[in-house]
Design a protein that fits this description.
The chain is about 40% helix and about 10% strand. It is built from 15 helices and ten strands. The strands form three sheets. It has a five-stranded parallel beta sheet with strand order 6-7-8-9-10. The chain has a three-stranded parallel beta sheet with strand order 3-4-5. α2 packs antiparallel against α3 and α6 packs parallel to α7.
């Protein structure tokens, strides 16, 4: 408890910013008032009021939320223009009651189908499949399987993991999700880190190719998480609010080392379809992501948790989405119904200077990409239908070809 209190105090100290000019002026008044404090009760009152005023100007950085005076057209989008498949959703605990609530929320958002990347394996996976299958909305969610690392240190792990995956797909899994611990914190009993391109896992990737299921893989974290947490770090605020997200070199592999391992994995297994989660953590460098997609035709990407990066470069992001309209899937990551409309507004409108939903992710405003309708349809559902097997294609309108998108750009 003492440690937690001290940690909270340190965070509070690092998370504060003073309005220097006004505070200094008020402090000066306090000193002048104090000289006369012994002379009268009124002077004491002045000192107290001045002290209160100083405190009121000492704002926490997250409390400083100025009201913009910019007057521009605003077009909030509470419901997506086209039905959406979210390929990056997490539902660790899925009960019939919880699923009924989620479906009601989905209906209001025009969110047609969720891909639960937290399906698990074995009995856990089968239970989640059954919850959805036995509900009034049996076609609104599918499950991706996950790997079990409990027997990682036993000889022949890769073959056993591939066999378990095959059984999970027979049970109804539509793909494989690899979490960020793979390559970053997963270690063998001897303390050696398991690299992303570890050949022990080759049977797993080969099984995915044979079964024609995609691998949605989360590799690494945003690059600033690996950098020094100082005044130059663009994610400083987030790393103050969530210090557990820091990735110092003393405890973690370097960002570029992880990216190199991932790229070697993608190029080695050309017959396996990979979906690089979170734009591969290159949403801040679309040229790098463009080169990666050009080199690796078996790789797709998705938009989970990188909306703030797209919304601050609307023209570059618009051009990227049009060029790679057949390689991008819609993903959100954490399921929170109130946050989806920020995605709809960013993708569907040309609005300027509007808020993002988490202040510690982005201290900047967002701008709309104003994507063409055919690109929206591909991002929202078309690319998921062609990438994830067994989805109900008949529940979605047709998608036009790329030539139409070029004419609409």
């Amino acid at each position: 408890m003492v440690v937690a209190t001290k940690l909270a105090a340190r965070r509070a100290k690092s998370d504060r910013i003073r309005l220097i000019g006004l505070t200094a002026a008020l402090s000066s008044r306090c000193l002048r008032a104090a000289r006369f404090a012994r002379r009268s009760f009124a002077s004491l009152t002045i000192v107290a009021l001045a002290a209160i005023a100083v405190t009121a100007q000492d704002l926490g950085i997250r409390q400083y939320k100025p009201k913009s005076t910019l007057v521009v057209p605003a077009h909030p989008v509470p419901r997506a223009k086209y039905p959406v498949i979210d390929v990056h959703s997490h539902h660790f605990e899925l009960s019939a009651e919880r699923w009924a609530t989620v479906v009601r929320e989905m209906d209001g958002l025009n969110l047609r189908l969720l891909v639960n990347l937290s399906g698990g394996t074995g009995d856990e996976l089968r239970r989640k499949i059954a919850v959805v299958a036995n509900s009034p909305a049996p076609t609104r969610m599918v499950q991706f399987a996950n790997l079990d690392f409990d027997d990682l240190n036993q000889l022949g792990y890769g073959r056993r993991a591939a066999a378990r995956l095959e059984a999970d797909v027979k049970a109804g899994a539509r793909g494989l999700k690899i979490y960020k611990n793979f390559g970053m914190t997963l270690k063998r009993s001897d303390g050696q880190r398991v690299p992303v391109d570890d050949p022990e896992f080759d049977p797993v990737w080969d099984m995915c190719a044979r079964l024609h299921i995609p691998v949605l893989i989360h590799t690494g974290e945003p690059a600033p998480f690996f950098d020094p947490v100082d005044e130059k770090n663009e994610r400083w605020l987030e790393l103050q609010v969530h210090p557990e997200r820091r990735r110092p070199p003393s405890n973690f592999p370097a960002f570029e080392a992880l990216m190199a391992e991932r790229d070697r994995l993608f190029t080695k297994h050309k017959s396996t379809t990979f979906i690089a989660a979170h734009f591969g953590f290159h949403a801040n460098d679309l040229d790098r992501l463009s080169k990666m997609l050009d080199r690796m035709p078996n790789v797709y990407t998705e938009t989970g948790a990188i909306l703030a990066e797209l919304g601050r470069q609307p023209r570059a992001a618009h051009a990227f989405f049009v060029k790679y309209q057949d390689r991008i899937l819609f993903g959100k990551d954490t399921y929170e119904a109130s946050e989806y409309p920020y995605y709809w507004r960013t993708f569907e409108t040309a609005d300027e200077y509007f808020d993002y939903y988490r202040d510690y992710h982005a201290f900047w405003k967002l701008y709309g990409l104003d994507l063409p309708d055919v690109v929206l349809r591909k991002i929202y559902y078309g690319n998921a239908l062609k990438t994830v097997p067994g989805l109900p294609a008949g529940d979605f309108p047709p998608v036009a070809d790329s030539a139409t998108a070029s004419r609409q750009n």
